[in-house]
Amino acid sequence: MTTFDHATCETSGTGFTLPGFAGRALRLAYHAMRMRSDRAALRAMPDYLLKDMGISRSQIEYYTSARGALAEADRTDA
């Protein structure tokens, strides 16, 4: 068995184990905390800085939601 085969065998079952679940839960919790922090920072900015970044105050909620973050990531990867 090559190193690559060994690595894929080890990682293929991690999604259904307790450590895999705990890791995903911690990542989701960290992501939620980060989004709340980013949202608070954007809300504290004056309008001219938001305009320089290309967003309006009404778009803060969208860009700091999971849906907005995923849409923005897809747009910048292409």
In short:
With 78 residues, the protein is mainly α. It has five helices and no strands.
Describe this structure in words.
The chain has one domain. By secondary structure, the protein is mainly alpha-helical. The two termini are 36 Å apart.
How are the secondary structure elements laid out?
Blueprint lengths: L2 H10 L5 H27 L2 H7 L6 H4 L2 H12 L1
Provide keyphrases for this structure:
single chain, 78 residues, mainly alpha, 5 helices, 77% helix, 0% strand, elongated
* Count of discrete structural domains: 1
The poorly predicted ranges are none
Termini separation = 36 Å
Oligomer: single chain
Question: What coarse outline follows from CA principal-axis ratios?
Answer: elongated
Structural class: mainly alpha
